[in-house]
Amino acid sequence: MIKEQIYTVPVVSPHIPKTCLKVSVPGSKSITNRALLLATLAQGESFLKGVLFSEDAVYFQKCIQTLGFPTEIDEEQKTIRITGYGGTIPKEETSVYVGSAGTAARFLSACLGLSKGTYHMDSSEQMKKRPMAPLLTCLRELGCEISFEEKEGFFPFTLTASGIHKESVCVNIDNSSQFLSALLISAVLSPKDFTIQVEGNHGMSYIEMTCNMMEQFGVSVKRQGDKTFVLPADSHYEARTYDIEPDVSAACYFYALCPLLQIPVLVEGIHDNSLQGDLDFVKLLTRLGCTLEDTAEGILLTPPASGTFPGIDVDMSSYSDQAITLSAIAPFATSPTTIRGIGHIRLQESDRISGIVNELRRVGITCTETPDSITIYPGTPHGALIETYEDHRMAMGFSLLGLRTQGVQIHDPACCKKTFPDYFETLETALAKYL
């Protein structure tokens, strides 16, 4: 993992490709953390393979151990054995620290708030700024007592839970779809049919992932239109052996090299049937002139025949983690790029819209913002030190811009440890083998 405070991005000139750039990425953070919770709620021993061991995932693992679930962790083999107790939490009173992991914060708060016991929930300073109120409001309505220690609606707080006392709840997902995923996964704790109504709008790709994974662990969610989800009474998760997919979010940085550097790219194990919504970004690159082929090894993306790519107007609400990725390559397009439907990314690890605009302007690129969109105009960036705001996606995304811009440096590259600790080493190794 990069330990220096500043990383200088190597410049790579677009050129006629000799071969395909091939790369492997770690397991999916989103799938890893969902599988961890599903395994704890199942009855018996589950065996997870291809597990991600990034900072966020490790915090989730430590939380599970703190709660008393037996685990056997083999980081070298990327596996975890977890013994679940069918919805019972081994420890009825303890303190849980989630770090900056949003999935751990939301998923574990829901699980513990709908179970029985007293749980003190704490987090990093970064996580204390991120919204929790819509989920905590639901937990209160369902019978959980919550006392806040600093700011109402935010970490840290204490949950005093006594089970689920209602048969339905309504959750607002404008700020995060994780609120709905958290309630869906833990709704199996209800002794009766349980209905979740949804207010607000948000990309639903992660909800589809949640529902698909719940079904893989033995629980089917009934859908009534787009806004109503029903968990049947006596639903139970089944312990199982589970293969975690490679992280499509991580793969997207490498697929973006295809139009940026005019080279073919293949990320091993990424296929068209992935559970992950960020696959839509890979498909989006075909609008830039790339060609997609799902091969036995993984999706192969080949560059535009023209040697250039156009700007586009796109709603990225359902795969907004890649807004930074598209923004970082947009200055090299032949026309402006507008990214819409991303207002909620202002409330993630950083205010990502402001971060994108600030850093593009820092390198001399013209861009404008609205509350939920960005427009980026083509230009010739110059070197600068990129501020990452303790946000892993700012660091990884803006490294792409540096590959075609002399003198771009990334401040605090180690922030990538949140999801992809070896990102810069993987990037350098892949480019060295290719070039």
The CATH superfamily of the largest domain is Enolpyruvate transferase domain
CATH architecture level-2 label of the largest domain: Alpha-beta prism
Helix content: 25-40%
List how many beta strands DSSP finds.
23
How are strands sequenced across the largest beta sheet? 2-15-17-16
Q: What value does the average pLDDT take?
A: 95
Tally the helices. Answer: 14
Q: Report the uncertain regions.
A: none
Return the domain count.
2
Question: Structural class of the helix and strand makeup?
Answer: alpha/beta
CATH class of the largest domain: Alpha Beta
Features:
single chain; 23 strands; 435 residues; four-stranded mixed β-sheet; globular; 14 helices; UDP-n-acetylglucosamine1-carboxyvinyl-transferase, Chain; alpha/beta; 2 domains
Protein architecture, described:
- With 435 residues, the chain is an alpha/beta fold.
- The chain has helices spanning 29-41, 55-66, 102-113, 125-128, 133-141, 178-186, 205-216, 248-255, 257-261, 279-284, 323-329, 352-362, 392-402, 423-434, and strands spanning 6-8, 21-23, 43-49, 71-74, 79-85, 93-97, 116-122, 145-148, 157-162, 168-172, 194-199, 222-223, 228-231, 241-243, 265-267, 291-294, 299-302, 313-315, 337-340, 367-370, 373-376, 384-386, 408-411.
- It folds into 2 domains: 6-26 and 246-434, UDP-n-acetylglucosamine1-carboxyvinyl-transferase, Chain; 29-243, UDP-n-acetylglucosamine1-carboxyvinyl-transferase, Chain (Alpha-beta prism).
- Helix content is 30%, strand content 23%.
- It is globular, with a radius of gyration of 22 Å.
